[in-house]
Structure formats: C-alpha cells, structure tokens
Amino acid sequence: MELELQEEKAVNFGKSLIVPSVLELAKQPIIDIPPRYIRSHEDPPIATHDSCLPSVPVIDLQKLASVDFELERLHLACKEWGFFQVINHGVSISLLEKFKLEIENFFKLPYEEKKQLWQEPDNHEGFGQLFVVSEDQKLDWSDMFYITSLPLNLRNTQLFNKLPPNLREVLETYSMEVKKLAMGILDHMAKALNMDCEEMRDMLNDGVQSMRMNYYPPCPEPEKAIGFTPHSDADALTILYQLNDTEGLQIRKDGRWIPVTPLPNAFVVNIGDIMESIEHRATVNSMKERLSVATFYSSKLDTELGPASSLIRPNSPAIFRRVPLEKYFKEFFARKLNGKAYLDFMRING
Description:
Elements: H1 2-11, H2 22-26, E1 58-60, H3 61-64, H4 68-80, E2 83-87, H5 93-107, H6 111-114, E3 126-128, E4 143-150, H7 157-160, H8 165-192, H9 197-204, E5 209-216, E6 228-231, E7 237-242, E8 249-253, E9 256-259, E10 267-271, E11 280-282, E12 290-297, E13 304-305, E14 323-324, H10 325-333, H11 341-345
Parallel strand pairs: 1-2
Antiparallel strand pairs: 2-10, 3-4, 4-5, 5-12, 6-11, 7-10, 7-12, 8-9, 8-11, 13-14
C-alpha cells in the first residue's frame, strides 16, 4: 500500500481548475466568444503570411548517421531555432494513419462519455486544460487530453484503462515508437553539442513521457482568441504530430511570430526547457478545426536536473540551478503559463 501511494504521488505533478469544454461551446450557434476567451492584450493571433519570412529547418534523420553536414544542420537548427521538422524518421505511415483515426474518433466521443475521462480536482491528467490556477484567468480556445504514458509504473492505469480499446492499443505502439525516435534525436544532439553521449543516455533513457492530445475547434472570432497561450515546454524534447493541414503553430523568433507549416507525415520537434527552449503558441481558425498530439520526453523521475557536467568548464560556468525532476515539474504545473518565465525562474542569476 505504501508503495502504491508513493507511485501515485510521483506521477501527480499538479492540478488545474476544471473548465468547460470548448468543443461543446463551439457546437452552439454563437457569434461572439465569451469574455473569458478574449485575449485583447496578446500579440495579434493571426500572423500575416509573408513570403519573406524564414521557415523552420527540415532535418533528414536517415542522413544524420552518415552525412556530417546534416549533423551541422541539426546543430544550427537547435541553436538558432529550437524547432525543426524531421523526415525519414522511421515511424511507419500506417501507424500514423491509424493513430490519427483513433484520435479523431476520440474527440468525437459523446460528451457524456468524455465526462468519464475528465480531469479530477486534484490531478491534471484527463480532458480539460492545463495551468488554470484561478477562476478569472483567461482560457485557451481548445480542449486537450493529457496523460503520462511512460514508464509504465508512473502511468495512471485507472485513466488509461478507460480509453477506447482501439486507441489504447495504438497508443501503446505509438508511445514506444516516439520514445525510440526521441532517444535517437537526443543522441545526435549530444554529438552536435560535443556532450558525453553516455551522460545524455543515462539521464534520459526510460525517462518520463507524457502526451497532450489537442483539439482546436473553429472559432467565430479567431482574431480575439488564442488556441494555446505562448509558452515554452518544460521537457527535454517535444515531438508533435499534426493530424490535419490547418495551420496554427507559431514560434517566436527575432521578435516575430513565425508560422510553422507541417510537412505531410513529418514530425515537428522542439527543444524543451531541460535543453533550453523557444517560446511558441497555437492560434485558431474561423472555419477549420485543428488536431495535434504533442509527446513530451523528459529525464528519469529520480534524476536531478541541471547543467550537463561534460559541458561545464572554467570558461563556461553553469547558469541554471540544479533541482530534482519531480520538484521541477510540480513547480512548472503550479504556475500560470507566461512565455519563458519558468526557464528564467530556473536561472542562477535570473
């Protein structure tokens, strides 16, 4: 019994206030969005499409193993962008198509069935929104389903077993494939950083993996709303699979919001705060829905986060404090999203 309580405590990184379903709200014939979703102080959510805007780098994973120039391109993508798309990633197209179908069906479930999968007051896993800490806080125009997928001993089995059987089956396969992909990318990143590859593997192998399935319904006033508040991710690596071609993901680079257009069957990868990240957000569309699945990969639960020892030198001292992973996540989920404020909070001289 004591062990069970410890595991339950370990996986419960935080909570979020229960909010209404935006999908159910969007089904109603509304013209004006409710005040709680109006973001008048944000940068304009709809960015002007400028052909002169730079685009996120594309990395061919098959070339990384044999072409030195591709490793240099990965290094520049991480250093200058913090985002890149990966092609020839080794995850089968048939698996992606099956996963896509099950996620689409999942969000189409009747509301009464979804309520069985809704967040509990003391845990943020399930349907709802994250980082809602007050009743007057502005909300995102989206529904999401959040769950810890790996390692198995940290999984909320009660919630996981409530998932539709077909989704549960494909989710098992997808989570293992994305773990393998994440570890491969992190290995290449370690080489590009001249970091000890074993140090990277020891820290991240069998690390905490979680998923956030996102549904952004059509919005009658997209210029006033935001799909996902500007933020940076708290993990080491995020792998995003976008299920349709509706644009929405934007990253902040050189003071401008740059839209990301996902390539078919590619993954959009971004570096999280554990590796030092870039701010990004999601916008919404007046006519089209947008669906995506973000998989977050972090280090082991019992590790202490901090600068890699193999990169600390007299002329390159640590600028971030060390903190146990569990404490790091609990502090992250307890805060309202605010750009890269949490990463700044972790700085030694911040």
